[in-house]
Amino acid sequence: MQRGWVLAGLMIIVGLLPVFGIALAWALAGVSGCTVTQSGARPCVIMGLDGGRFLYALSISGWFLILTAPIALAGMALGIWLALVSLIRRARD
Questions:
Q1: How many whole angstroms from its chain centre is CA 44?
Q2: Contact (CB, 8 A) for 72 and 16
């Protein structure tokens, strides 16, 4: 049962990784005063280095959500199923 919870958690985290990438891109852009768009990389100086391409890559990683969202949904369904099985087992005891 413990492995099932770990698996469900990992599936949810892997499925939501593109969202974390987008949030990181917007946070870094906000702190450094840069503009992030999906139309292309823009020059952005972060700690003396041009981080525009990095921010652009992070911002377009959201498109991977199309592929990873089903993994996150399956992890959530697994978690709900494990919770229901746990409740049924407790009710029988």
A1: 24
A2: yes
